[in-house]
Amino acid sequence: MINWQFYPRSKRAPEIVSSVVSCFEKVADEIESGVANLDSNGVLAVVRPELQSIGFIVEIGKKVSEKISVPVLFGRNGILEKSFDADAFHVATGFVLEVEAGRGVVNNQFLKDLFQACMMTDVRYLGIAVANQYGNNKDFEAVCRFFDTLYATDRLKLPLDGVLILGY
Fold first, then answer.
1. 3-class DSSP assignment, residue 167
2. Global pTM?
3. 68 pairs with which residues across the strands?
4. Which sign, positive or negative, has the C-alpha torsion 119, 13, 46, 147?
């Protein structure tokens, strides 16, 4: 089952969110956590064709030429000085997607994803896909609790128009 939550909860999710969720729903049986036991690359490989069909560019491997680099800093004469890699990027909407598995919560990878998306040029939305269940941990619920707290306290202003947490 695919679960999702869009933040801030006071805003209606844009159409790109529905499209991303639909991509995951189409392959839900193949990626279901606790059943399929795929790593993040495995999940991304299954959902890749669906994401590409809605206009995402998607990482296809670990070689530099297969990764999706999103600019962060530019130097003199507009030369790219720093970029971060993303699992998938929808340029037209500024939606960056990260797919996590085991270390998504255990190693706080979702926080690194948040930080990097906040630094990326032209990124308006971040999607983080995590397992609904990883071992005894309910990763989707844990990440949602974090974002519930982040948005409820209103102490940290994110430079993003929204964040999608997706549980697979």
1. strand
2. 0.95
3. 86
4. positive
H-helix segments, 2-138: 15-26, 28-31, 40-53, 103-106, 109-119
Reference 139, options 26, 43, 30, 72; nearest CA is 43
Residues 127-145: tens digit of each pLDDT: 999 999 988 889 999 999 9
The answer to whether 167 touches 131, Cβ cutoff 8 Å, is yes
**Do the beta carbons of residue 133 and residue 139 sit within 8 Å?**
yes
- Number of C-beta neighbours around residue 85 at 10 A: 14
Helical ranges in the chain per DSSP H = 15-26, 28-31, 40-53, 103-106, 109-119, 139-153
90 compared with 135, residue with greater pLDDT: 90
Domains and CATH numbers, the chain: 3-167 (3.40.91)
Task: Provide, for the chain, the percentages of residues in helix, strand and coil under a 3-state DSSP scheme, each rounded to the nearest 5.
Answer: 40, 25, 35
Type of residue numbered 146: F
Cα–Cα nearest to 121, from 86, 164, 155, 157: 86
13: which DSSP letter? P
